[in-house]
Amino acid sequence: MNAKNNILSIDNLDFYYGDFKALDKINMNIESNSVTAFIGPSGCGKSTLLRTINRMNELIDNTRLDGKIKFDNKNAYLDYEVIELRKRIGMVFQKPNPFPMSIYDNIVYGIKLHYKKSKNELDEIVERSLRGAALWDEVKDRLKKNALELSGGQQQRLCIARAIAIEPEVILMDEPTSALDPIATAKIEELIIRLKEKYTIVIVTHSMHQAARISDYTGFFLTGKLIEFDKTENLFSNPKNNKTEDYITGRFG
Predict the structure, then answer these.
(1) What is the number of structural domains in the chain?
(2) What is the pLDDT of residue 60?
(3) Domain annotation covers residue 186
């Protein structure tokens, strides 16, 4: 992986919840315009790592981070205001969480916080974002309807549209399809593959099949350690670590 193409670099990262060490010496580079998947059993640290990238863990009391996360060649914790960082590194959560307001207002909510835009500009952003999330054709005639009336899969695509509306460079996704049926999951997966043309995607998934289908790189985590990180095809077809092989062949986890 050429260093100049790395949008994120994680260097010797330790993370603690109180006295509990949740991440242990994580080292990883994440390439621009790629999909990187984190896999591993529950409680292995993959979601914790995802939330350290845009400093979401700062919202939790009594946590501590050692080591370094670099975003766009600058220290994510020292060189950015947290609002600026989260504007450039968006997040989509496990359970769809649209705001209890109209579809239109969900999309423009973040824009209005950060920018002054005319009504025409907002209209263009709403259409562009919903098209980007493959949702425009389904909702263009009901933009003033409450977003909570959408199906679960549509709500999750709306949350993706909301994330891309402020034009981040990275989108973090924490098990974004775990609450969805197989048809909605397939739509989100197709969307993720398309989105990497413009964005860098980092996804936590409980599904090894999903990681194999959509990611370019995969990291396997176990008890807070990054056991193996490689191109997805290599990790699944020819893992270098016995623990990785045991996990992907179903011998544990």
Answers:
(1) 1
(2) 92
(3) yes
pLDDT band at 1 (very low <50, low <70, confident <90, very high): very low
Q: Which domain holds residue 207?
A: 3-248
Residue 253 lies in a domain: no
Q: Is residue 135 part of a domain?
A: yes
- Provide the sign of the torsion angle of the four alpha carbons 90, 96, 102, 103, taken in this order: positive
Residue 151 maps to a domain? yes
Rounded to an integer, what distance in angstroms lies between the CA atom of residue 93 and that of residue 159?
Answer: 8
DSSP state for residue 236 in the 8-state scheme: H
234 sits in the region (left: phi over 0; alpha: psi -120 to 50; else beta) called alpha
**Pairing mode of beta strands 170-174, 200-204:** parallel
- Token representation of residue 76: 């994510």
pLDDT attached to residue 2: 43
Cα–Cα distance, 71 to 54 (Å, whole number): 9
DSSP classification of residue 240: S
For residue 102, what is the DSSP state? B
Please enumerate in sequence order all residues whose Cβ is within 8 A of that of 181, keeping only pairs 6 or more positions apart, or say none. 152, 153
The domain spanning residue 168 has which CATH number?
3.40.50.300
Q: How far is CA 139 from CA 44, 134, 145, 175, 250, in A?
A: 38, 10, 9, 24, 41
Determine the Cα–Cα distance for residues 136 and 39; give it in Å rounded to an integer: 31
> Residue 202: how many CB atoms within 10 A of its CB?
27
Are the C-beta atoms of 193 and 214 separated by less than 8 Å?
Answer: yes
